[in-house]
Design a protein that fits this description.
CATH topology: Rossmann fold
Number of strands: 10
Structural class: alpha/beta
CATH architecture: 3-Layer(aba) Sandwich
Distance between the termini: 38 Å
Radius of gyration: 17 Å
Strand order of the largest sheet: 5-4-1-6-7-9-8-10
Strand content: 15-25%
Oligomer: single chain
Helix content: 25-40%
Number of domains: 1
Number of helices: 10
CATH superfamily: Vaccinia Virus protein VP39
Length: about 280
């Protein structure tokens, strides 16, 4: 448990992940019926971009800071409104993690359950989300193991975010196992699995393993590469495997990804991908 997201908060991967995630939550809110959200790897909930960790890497400069140059774009309004709500008096100092983003968007009838394995991070997460009455933080808790037990929700509608640090060699296997168990418990849920793009062969294997899960319904692959994918080590991009993506957000995906390429490209080979892994 050595990974600390504070070093990477607000980077291009966070912007990609959270822009799409906010869109998904907002589309669920178009119906009055309540919904449930489960977040398997909560982190600490929000991050100080002027803190020691973020200042050492300055990854936010290639993410949220650059994106703000396009702050008037209609597709960014919901996402940036949440980020700005955390920074009323702080000039963009803080960046929200997925639990804080979700919690701030929920209505009174909606519910969020968040898991975090690291004890200290879990306590900080609990403190950061204390103001939200419809949020339950479970820490220390293994989100992979807890996922199936939390499903199906009473609300019947909802989202599951599986966003691990990918610091363990068997992380993709753990994702497949957790997703398989979740699908058996709640086949109609919307599952978003975020992953880093470091090794294309490994990603292709992961996609094949996902598509082999029984009972899997329509599943989308969404990827963003701010620069060329090369043999060099490091994260060249990131993606989502999204099972049962909210219907309304599909029309927004391509324009959002085009905007990310336009605003966050690090070289002329920046690109995106939207493909059905399992067709409708």
């Amino acid at each position: 448990m050595n990974y600390r997201h504070a070093f990477h908060a607000g980077n291009f991967a966070d912007v990609f992940k959270h822009l799409l995630w906010v869109s998904a939550v907002q589309h669920l809110k178009r119906k009055d019926k309540p919904f449930f959200v489960l977040d398997t790897h909560g982190g600490i909930g929000c991050y100080d971009l002027q803190g020691n960790e973020a200042s050492r890497t300055e990854e936010a400069m290639q993410g949220i800071v650059r994106l703000r140059q396009h702050s008037e774009h209609p597709l960014l309004q919901d996402y940036l409104a949440v980020v700005d709500s955390l920074n009323a008096d702080n000039g963009g100092r803080f960046y929200p993690g997925s639990p804080w983003l979700t919690a701030s968007l929920l209505r009174r009838q909606d519910r969020l359950q968040v898991f975090e394995l690291h004890p200290q991070d879990g306590e900080q997460l609990r403190q950061n989300l204390a103001a939200f009455s419809n949020v339950k933080v479970e820490a220390p808790a293994n989100g992979y193991q807890a996922l199936a037990a939390a499903l199906p929700p009473l609300e019947k509608r909802g989202l599951v975010l599986i966003d691990p640090p990918f610091e363990q060699t068997d992380e993709f296997d753990q994702v497949i196992d957790a997703l398989s168990k979740g699908i058996r418990r709640w086949s109609h849920g919307s599952y978003a699995i975020w992953y880093p793009i470091k090794d294309r062969v490994k990603i292709a294997e992961f996609h094949r393993d996902v598509s082999a899960i029984p009972q899997l319904e329509k599943t989308l692959v969404i990827e963003f590469m701010p620069r060329a994918v090369t043999p060099e080590k490091g994260m060249h991009g990131c993606g989502f495997v999204w099972v049962n993506p909210p219907y309304g957000m599909l029309n927004e995906l391509e324009p959002m990804l085009k905007l990310l390429v336009q605003s966050l490209a690090q070289d002329q080979d920046a690109s995106y991908r939207i493909d059905w892994l399992i067709e409708e």
